[in-house]
Amino acid sequence: MSKQGSIKKNYSEHSGEPGCATAGEVKKFFRHFWDPTSYWECEEQGKPAALRRCGASELYSDKHGKCVHYREWEWTEPIEPPSRPKTQ
To answer: What's the number of domains the chain is made of?
Structure first.
């Protein structure tokens, strides 16, 4: 097994917040890596992503691209957004 293949992914240092740096991120939703009741939305290119919350009894589903009832929710591997926020 390659050295890279044996490394487990660590999502504890990044919340999944997109950088909204590309046109492909605009008007899209992105999973919050730590909180399944929340997700990120890029409203405008070059502006910080907005943190959104699902309604009562709902969790954000990457599979469906929206909030779903918690009974329909399934865990999926987090996917890195196309860009990350610039560090100050």
So the answer is: 1
Residue 83 lies in a domain: no
- Distance between CA atoms of residues 47 and 69, nearest Å: 30
**How big is the chain, counted in residues?**
88
Residue 6 lies in a domain: no
Q: Which two tokens stand for residue 30?
A: 């992105």
pLDDT in tens, 3-40: 444 334 555 678 999 999 999 999 999 999 999 999 99
The residue type at 62: D
Q: Report d(CA 20, CA 42) in Å as an integer.
A: 6
Read off the pTM: 0.84
Dihedral, 32, 34, 37, 39 alpha carbons, nearest 10: -10
